[in-house]
Design goal:
- By secondary structure, the chain is mainly α.
- It has a single domain, classed as Arp2/3 complex 21 kDa subunit ARPC3 (Orthogonal Bundle).
- It contains eight helices and two strands, in the order αββααααααα.
- A two-stranded antiparallel ribbon has the order 1-2.
- About 35% of the residues are buried.
- It is a multi-pass membrane protein.
Length: about 230
């Protein structure tokens, strides 16, 4: 059942990011990167069994942030892709700070949510630190690498090369940095390695499957079908 839900989530994420770009252009992708940064760092708290491996949720939505920055790099340039990365940083920092202040409030005797919010957001500072470090290293590498490969394979038919060559190394960096900071000492070594490899493999699968969507985004841009809120 988890595997079916994983593919459903994959399709939903790809559909939403395509709609966001179609309707709002660059702005839609900036919004999506912010959404992905926040949701992924909430979902990652939940550990599930996927394809006979221990895995954390959040892999799909986080991996689509690489798709968003690759679309920006492809259609709008490296500067716009970097801007999306900075927006993701700011979004995650903002949520972390605001939720820590919210948790510090003394709850009313009738309150029923404090305990549940503490479970979800009480762990967020460590998760946020891990995510920010991983985000900084991997996303900026991805933007640099996409531009690097685009200069060497500039033809439209070679989008798949620059998309996958940049993303797969970037996601390896992201997975290594994130899992060490977030989960070292939290899980046993065996579970930690399962989470590391399952996280990277699942992100790798998402990177392969998102390739048609970057071609679609390029075609929509070339056909003038993108409604950008910001010229």
């Amino acid at each position: 059942m988890n595997e079916i839900l994983w593919f459903v989530m994959l399709v939903v994420n790809f559909a939403l990011i395509t709609i966001a770009y179609r309707w709002w252009g660059k702005t839609g992708l900036y919004v999506w990167v912010a959404i992905a940064a926040i949701i992924a760092n909430v979902q990652v708290i939940k550990t599930v069994s996927l394809f006979w491996m221990a895995a954390t949720l959040g892999n799909i939505v986080y991996a689509t942030s690489f798709l968003a920055t690759d679309i920006l790099s492809e259609n709008h340039g490296k500067k716009e892709a970097r801007k999306a990365v900075y927006i993701g940083f700011f979004s995650l920092i903002s949520v972390t700070v605001i939720m820590q202040i919210a948790l510090a409030f003394e709850p009313h005797p009738s309150d029923f949510s404090q305990e549940h919010l503490s479970v979800v957001f009480g762990l967020l500072p460590r998760i946020a630190l891990a995510s920010l470090a991983a985000y900084w290293c991997s996303q900026l590498h991805d933007v640099w690498a996409y531009d690097f490969w685009k200069k060497r394979f500039p033809e439209k038919r070679h989008i798949w090369i620059r998309n996958n060559a940049s993303t797969m190394i970037s996601q390896l960096i992201d997975t290594a940095v994130f899992t060490v900071i977030a989960f070292a000492g939290v899980f046993s070594a065996g579970v930690w390695w399962q989470i590391f490899w399952s996280t990277y493999i699942l992100k790798w699968v998402v990177a392969v499957l998102d390739t048609p969507f970057i071609y679609l985004a390029r075609k929509m841009k070339d056909d003038g079908k993108i409604r950008d809120l910001v010229p």
